[in-house]
What does this fold into?
Amino acid sequence: MHEINYRFKFSAAHFLRDYEGICRNTHGHNWEVIVTLEGEELTSNGMLIDFYEVERVVKPVRDDLDHAFLNEIPPFTEISPTSENLAKWIFDRIRPQIESDRVRLRQISVREYEDSLVTYRPS
It folds into this structure.
């Protein structure tokens, strides 16, 4: 099994709904997202997937998130834009564009602070 990771970053603000701590106030982060893909079969030139193809798929997502107020982006107009919810939203958004008969989207990890990381991986 081969696994590749592609990382992208964006800056965005949010606040957490139904939360009693300081994060109920609007604040920002420099977010980091790690896209993990896996597969067994490589292309004839020895790649699981070209990193440029991964970039092409994630760029619209990054563009929508960068310098945005996450609470104004559906579904975060209704649910809290936590790292957990953001990871699943990104997963669901890029999965249809990136998966093939050879490549599977394994997981999405989201880091909003240097020392904390959330991972969404479907069961």
The helical segments are 51-65, 83-98. The mean pLDDT is 96.
